Amino acid sequence: MERQNRAINRITEGVVWKQLLIFFFPLLFGTFFQQLYNTVDAIVVGKYVGKEALSAVGGTTGALINLLVGFFVSVSSGATVAISQYYGADDEENVSRSVHTSIALAISGGIIIMIIGILGAPYALRWMGTPEDIMPYSLQYIRIYFTGMIANLIYNMGSGILRAIGDSKRPLYFLIIGCIMNIILDIIFVVVFGLDVIGVAMATVISQIVSGALVFFSLMSSIECYRLDIKKIRFDNKILRKIVSIGLPTGIQSLMYSASNIIIQSSINSFGTNTVAAWTAYTKIDGIFWMILTSFGIATTTFVGQNFGADKKDRVRKGVVTCILMSAGTSLALSFILYNTGAYLFKFFTDDLKVIEAGVEMLSLITPFYITFVAIEILSGALRGMGDTFIPMIISGIGICALRVLWIFIAVPVWPTIKTVLYSYPITWTVTSILFIFYYMKFLKKKNI
């Protein structure tokens, strides 16, 4: 039975594009339902509470949540890479040690982030210049949200473990269950009981606890080498060092992304509640692109990790090229669709015409440039799968973060419009993509791949 299951989870054999798509689609649907969590929250409060509440469940709170959670999830990607490489090399002992170290990291990380988030939220929100009419809603939402951090990180880490061994279906099923529960609870708490943003925050936390519990018990019930035993949950120093050495640069990269986005969010806050509400709705629509590209990136990392671990260099190279072509085609198609349907999509979130007008302007400016981000996501995912995360961190830090911050501090004061703020995205994406392409080609030559 165990050998059969391993054969099913393997992505080191078969037609490259088919194996990638078989792995990609469950990831995509999983990311879709993860995105649906916050999107439903935004739709419910936008329609039944108002634009102030809509601003609170995304925008500023979203930037802060991404800063802390994004850092941990990025660091934990080191566990996914380590497990996929050990699994591809048939090193069952180190797979098991990696699983237990990863869960220990999720639990301890969840406790730390929960404390920082709850205590630091009011100071961070005020530092970012959150408008006063949004502040009470934002503080209520983010403090309740952070109480669910342990479950949130266990789900993300557990899902990463399952994906590392080639199983992208179970994380999807667990997320669907959590998402359906979130939608039902949103309606009950907000529409029926009138709990405003407190209701959507509670719904999200309860749903995350359910998803986290499902993935946790799924690992416990496995008969494979990645089976989780509660008594063995502890840090293995050797494994932890490997996870951190691979994941920390990615975590720092995430911090730089988030920090630059916080600076952008602070700039957007200065344009008032209508703009903040429009940006919140836009980020939910824009999430369609990110969920697709992120899924391609995760598929690339796992595919490359297993094949690199199995020393199948030809499949590594073919997998990356295939993913770039599929991602580019999808990005172009999505840019066309969103550009032409933006006005209709914003009506799902609000009936305020000023908010819709501002949101359509944002969408029309950014969506045509989606394709410029493809190389960043796929090539950094491929390099991560081969254990190279330091140089990608430097490239992203310079090309996206530093350049974006410079743009905000230099260009925006000269041309103080929302368009000037948003131009920072296509400019930094293009520069960073070029840097990644040059480095990736050099890396392949160095490794003789």
Features:
mainly alpha; 449 residues; single chain; 17 helices
Q: Would you kindly provide a written description of the structure presented here, covering whatever features stand out?
A:
- With 449 residues, this protein is mostly helical.
- The protein has one domain.
- It has helices spanning 2-9, 16-48, 51-56, 59-88, 92-127, 135-146, 149-164, 169-192, 196-220, 237-269, 273-309, 313-346, 353-366, 374-385, 390-414, 418-422, 424-447.
- α5 packs parallel to α10 and α11 runs parallel beside α13.
- The relative contact order is 0.13.
Counting DSSP H or I runs of 4 or more residues, the number of helices is: 17
How is the biggest beta sheet arranged? Answer: none
Distance between the termini: 35 Å
Order of helices and strands: HHHHHHHHHHHHHHHHH
| Strands, total number | 0
Structural class by sheet pairing and helices = mainly alpha
Q: What's a concise summary of this model?
A:
The protein is mainly α and 449 residues long. 83% of the residues lie in helices and 0% in strands. It contains 17 helices and no strands.
Please describe the topology of this protein.
Layout (H helix, E strand, L loop, with lengths): L1 H8 L6 H33 L2 H6 L2 H30 L3 H36 L7 H12 L2 H16 L4 H24 L3 H25 L16 H33 L3 H37 L3 H34 L6 H14 L7 H12 L4 H25 L3 H5 L1 H24 L2
Helix pairs in contact: 2-8, 2-9, 2-11, 4-5, 4-7, 4-10, 4-11, 5-6, 5-7, 5-10, 6-9, 7-9, 8-9, 10-15, 11-12, 11-13, 11-14, 12-13, 12-14, 14-17, 15-17
